[in-house]
From TrEMBL:
Keyword hit for rRNA-binding: no
Keywords: Membrane, Transmembrane, Transmembrane helix
Signal peptide: none
Keyword Iron belongs to the record: no
TM segment ranges: 34-50, 62-81, 93-120, 132-148, 160-178, 190-210, 222-241, 253-274, 294-319, 340-361, 367-385, 397-416
Domain of life: Bacteria
Protein name: Uncharacterized protein
Length: 431
C-alpha cells in the first residue's frame, strides 16, 4: 500500500463508510431496488471525492450504471447460506462463508465493472452498450440453464438459485472487458468483487460472534455494513489506482450521459423502493407495536416518504436539464456533491420512516446511520485522492482469492469452536 497517499486511503474509507451505511439501510428494503440505491450512493461518492472534472458530466451515467450493477445482485437469495455459517461443523460453515464470498463478490464484480466501464468510456474508445447488455443477458441465461438446470449444481436448495444468473452476467461482462482491453474497468470490478465477497463472509463471522456474545445490537446489520464497507473500499481502490483515458471536460449536454441516467437514478429507483416498501399491510405490524392507532402514522409515513424523494428528484432533473440552454453545460463539484447529499439523505429518511424510528429509539442502528452520514459529509472536504496508475495483474488476483479462502477457513474454525447449535442454523451437507 506504499503507492497510496493518506488522502487516497481516507477517500477509500469514506467511500467504504458511504456504501457500508447505505448497504445496512438496504436491509430494510431488500431486493434489486434497495441494492441499486445503495450501489448508486457508493458509486457517486467515488466521483464526488475524485475532484476529477472530466468525471462530473459522467456522474449520473456512472452512478446509474453502478446502481444497476449492484442492484442486479439483489436477485440472489442468501438467507439459507447465512444459516450455513451458523453451523457447528467445519464443512458446512466453510461452505457457507465461501458461498457468501461468491455472492458478495458478484455484487461488487458487476457493480464495479459497469461503474468502471462508464469511467473508461471515451470518444476514441466508445463502449457499445447495446453489445454489453446483450452479452451479459446471454451469459446469465446460458450459465443458469446449463449449470443450475442441466447439471443441477445448486448453492442453496430449495431456495432460488438466481446466483447462477448473476455468475453468468459477471463472467460475460469480464469476457467483454478482457476482449476490449478495458483493463481499468476490470480492476474496479475485481477489487469491488474481492471487497464485497470478503466483507460478506467476514460480516457473517462477526454476526455469529456477536450473537454468541449476546451483544445487544442488530448483528445482521453489522454483516450488511461489512459487505458494503469492504465492497466500497475495493471499488474506490480500483477507481483511484487505475489508468483512465485523458479527456477534456465536455461542455456538451447529451441525453445518454445525463437525461436518461438521471431520471433512472434520481426518480425511478427511489419510486420503486417507495412503491414496493411503503405498503400499509407491511407497515402496520411495525408501526402498530409503537402506537395505538397506526393508520394515521402509516399514511403520514407514506406521504412524507413520497414527497421526500419526489421534490429533490424534480429539482435536480429540472436544474440539470436547464443546462442544455446554457453556454456552459458542465456539471460542477458543488452540483454533484449536492446530488450525493440529497440522494443519501432521502435513503436515510426512508429507513427512519419504514422502521418507525421517528416514534421510538428502539432501533439504535437507525440513528447511527445519521451519525455515519454526518461524519462522511464532514470528511469529504478534507479528502482528495491522489490518482496512481496500476496495471492489471490476474496472477495476483488469483493469489488474493486463495488468501481470502484461507482466511475464511481460519475464521470458520474460530466460529465452530465458539458455540454449539444456534437458532437459524442450516445444514447443506449431512455427514
Amino acid at each position: 500500500m506504499k503507492h497510496l497517499s493518506k488522502n487516497t486511503m481516507l477517500s477509500m474509507v469514506i467511500v467504504g463508510m458511504a456504501l457500508g451505511t447505505a448497504w445496512a439501510i438496504r436491509g430494510q428494503f431488500g431486493h434489486e431496488q434497495g441494492a441499486a440505491w445503495a450501489g448508486g450512493i457508493g458509486s457517486l461518492c467515488i466521483i464526488v471525492l475524485s475532484r476529477n472534472k472530466s468525471w462530473y458530466n459522467k456522474a449520473m451515467k456512472a452512478a446509474f450504471a453502478g446502481a444497476v450493477g449492484w442492484g442486479l445482485g439483489g436477485m440472489m437469495s442468501y438467507g439459507a447460506v447465512v444459516g450455513y455459517g451458523r453451523g457447528v461443523d467445519f464443512v458446512n460453515v466453510y461452505y457457507g462463508l465461501s458461498m457468501l464470498f461468491i455472492i458478495g463478490g458478484l455484487y461488487g464484480l458487476i457493480g464495479g465493472g459497469l461503474f468502471g466501464l462508464v469511467l473508461a468510456d471515451h470518444p476514441e474508445k466508445k463502449v457499445k452498450w447495446h453489445q454489453v447488455i446483450i452479452e451479459m443477458t446471454t451469459g446469465g441465461v446460458i450459465f443458469y440453464y446449463f449449470i443450475i438446470e442441466q447439471l443441477g449444481i445448486a448453492m442453496t436448495p430449495p431456495r432460488s438459485e438466481a446466483w447462477g444468473v448473476c455468475a453468468g452476467i459477471g463472467i460475460a461482462m469480464m469476457y467483454y472487458l478482457a476482449r476490449k482491453k478495458q483493463y481499468s474497468a476490470m480492476r474496479v470490478a475485481v477489487f469491488a468483487g474481492l471487497g464485497g465477497g470478503f466483507g460478506f463472509a467476514f460480516g457473517n463471522f462477526l454476526q455469529v460472534l456477536g450473537n454468541v456474545g449476546q451483544v445487544p445490537f442488530n448483528m445482521w446489520n453489522v454483516m450488511e455494513y461489512s459487505l458494503g464497507f469492504f465492497g466500497g473500499l475495493g471499488m474506490a481502490y480500483g477507481a483511484y489506482t487505475s489508468p483512465w483515458p485523458e479527456e477534456k471536460p465536455t461542455t456538451k449536454y447529451t441525453y445518454s450521459n445525463l437525461t436518461i441516467p438521471m431520471v433512472g437514478f434520481l426518480l425511478l429507483i427511489p419510486f420503486i423502493v417507495w412503491q414496493q416498501s411503503f405498503v400499509e399491510k407491511d407497515l402496520e405490524p411495525t408501526i402498530g407495536k409503537l402506537v395505538n392507532d397506526p393508520g394515521i402514522w402509516i399514511s403520514m409515513a407514506q406521504s412524507v416518504a413520497f414527497v421526500a424523494f419526489l421534490i429533490p428528484a424534480i429539482f435536480w432533473i429540472y436544474f440539470l436539464s436547464n443546462k442544455k440552454n446554457k453556454l456552459s453545460q458542465e456539471l460542477s463539484f458543488a452540483e454533484v456533491h449536492g446530488i450525493f447529499i440529497s440522494y443519501f439523505a432521502v435513503y436515510i429518511i426512508f429507513t427512519i420512516l419504514i422502521t418507525g424510528s421517528f416514534l421510538s429509539f428502539y432501533r439504535i442502528e437507525q440513528f447511527l446511520y445519521i451519525l455515519n452520514f454526518a461524519v462522511i459529509l464532514a470528511l469529504i472536504p478534507k479528502a482528495t485522492p491522489l490518482f496512481s496508475s496500476r496495471k492489471a495483474h490476474p496472477q495476483k488476483w488469483i493469489l488474493m482469492v486463495l488468501g481470502i479462502l484461507v482466511f475464511i477457513a481460519l475464521i470458520s474454525l474460530i466460529a465452530i469452536s465458539s458455540h454449539g447449535e444456534m437458532p437459524g442454523m442450516n445444514k447443506r451437507f449431512d455427514w
